[in-house]
Design a protein that fits this description.
Largest sheet: 5 strands, parallel
Number of helices: 10
Shape: elongated
Strand content: 15-25%
Structural class: alpha/beta
Helix content: 40-55%
Strand order of the largest sheet: 2-1-6-5-8
Bound molecules: adenine
Distance between the termini: 46 Å
């Protein structure tokens, strides 16, 4: 999997991305990360990348040329990559988007700063606009890190345990995850649910499924409507609802 990022703060981005499992995948070569900064493509001696907005108003807007040249530099390394602009105006990023990016195999992420970017950058070079949610960040870097992390962990070999990704929240069925416990069995008067130490694998699987369904029903009921449940799970849900 290959990621390219256009950012004014490459060190901030790589600092986060290069930690943990994704960082290990990058150093092992399973995942490639390239960054380009528009400043390197600015032609004036101050390496200017932004200017005041036409029509007035607060803040600065990133100008077309340095950013488009930075995208073009990444495009030369990754000719078939989709270009995604991170913005609150985009469609909301979710697990299905991560799976689609993983399938595509290469992605160029464009991080804005200041009030925004000149609309002609989007018209000329952007395939898709993606948001992390209904809030405003100071720049796209935090969102780019989230997209890279969520996508890279779906690449085979990035996570240690083969099944980890599919058993996460939203893993295969779009439900929230069940609670997890480890040692000690009794912590400060709080005991682990006895079924988990029973050794009865069928009962454990059933308990986990029940917990995942209960949590999803309580916290994110709309996810239940979107997920495909077996008839046994629908029965479980009826019991949960009647409790
Ligand atoms: N840039 C600024 N705010 C953002 C958001 N909510 N999602 C993605 N990119 C952003």
């Amino acid at each position: 999997m290959r990621f390219g990022v256009v950012t004014l703060f490459p060190e901030a981005l790589t600092g986060l991305v290069c930690a943990g499992v994704v960082g290990r995948a990058i150093s092992e070569g399973t995942v490639d990360l390239y960054t380009e900064t528009p400043r390197d493509f600015a032609h004036d001696k101050h390496r200017t990348v932004d200017d005041r907005p036409f029509g007035g108003g607060p803040g600065m807007v990133m100008t077309p040329q340095p950013t488009l040249d930075a995208i073009a530099a990444l495009n030369r390394r990754m000719p078939s990559a989709r270009v995604v602009y991170l913005t609150p105006q985009g469609s909301v990023f979710d697990q299905a988007t991560a799976a689609r990016y993983r399938e595509a195999g290469s992605l160029i992420l464009l991080c804005g700063r200041y009030e925004g970017i000149d609309e002609r950058i989007i018209e000329r070079a952007v395939d898709e606009e993606v948001s992390l949610g209904d809030f405003v960040l100071s720049g796209g870097e935090v969102a780019a890190v989230a997209v890279i992390d969520a996508t890279a962990r779906l690449v085979p070999g990035v996570l240690g345990h083969a099944d980890s990704a599919s058993e996460d929240s939203f893993g295969t069925d779009g439900l929230l995850d069940c609670p997890h416990y480890t040692r000690p069995e009794n912590f400060d008067g709080m005991a682990v649910p006895p079924v988990l130490t029973s050794g009865d694998h069928k009962a454990i699987a059933l308990w986990r499924r029940q917990q995942a369904l209960t949590r999803t029903r309580m916290r994110r009921p709309e996810l239940i409507d979107e997920s495909v449940l077996t008839s046994a799970e629908q029965e479980l849900l009826k019991n949960i609802d009647s409790e």
